[in-house]
Amino acid sequence: MKDLFGKAILDYQTNNNPEDLITETSISEEDEMSVAYLFRSYDEMPKIEQKALQLAKGKVLDVGCGAGSHSLTLQNDRNLDVTSIDISEKAIQACTLRGLKQAKVQDLMTLENEKFDTIIVLMNGPGICGKLKNIPAFLLKLKSLLNPGGQILMDSSDIIYMFDEDEDGGKWIPSENEYYGETIFNITYKGEKEAPLDWLFLDYNTLQNAAFANGLQCELILEGEHYDYLAKLSI
Q: Is 149 part of any domain?
C-alpha cells in the first residue's frame, strides 16, 4: 500500500499542495473527493455521524479514524477519553498535529488488552472487512474490546439501489460476488494509483443477522437519505 489516502490527509493538514482524491469503485464511475471533507466540523457532518457522536459515552475507541474529525469532536467538545486508531501512519501523523492526544497506528484486529465503553466505526465501518466472510471475526474482535454495558456504533449503506432492475423488479447482480455489497475501491492521488482495495457495504438485515450469530444485539438507530443507516450493537 502506498497510503495515498493518508498522504492526502497529511498534505491537507500541512498545506502541502493538497489535491482532490480520485475515487472509483467496481460499481460506480470516477469521482472527485475533496480532502477537506475529511476535516469537517461537527456541524458539517451528516446526521448519522452527529447522532453517533451524541450517543458516545465513557472511554471511546475510534476505529479507522482517518483525519480524526470524529475523535476531535469527542475529545474537545465532549471531554471524552478517546483512543483513535488507523493503519495509515500519515493519517495518524495528521491526527497528532490536529491535537488528538491518543492517536496511534494500529490494526483493529491486533489490538489487545484494552476495553472501551463505546467503539465508533463510522464512514461505512464494515468497509474495512472487504468481504462478507470477514464480518464474523470483525464483530467478535469488537465485542472482545467492550466493557460490560458497552456499545458499538457503526454506519453503512444498502447499495442494492445501484443495480439495474429487470422487468419483474428483480435486480441484476454480478454473479462473481458472494454478496452484492462487495466492491473494489480504487484511489488515485497526484497521479499515483493505490493498489485496488476490497471494500464492503453491508445492508442492515445482513449486519443484524451477523450480530445475532456472534452474540450481539443489534438496533437500528437512524436511517439516512441515501439508503444509509446507523446501528448500535451491544452484548
A: yes
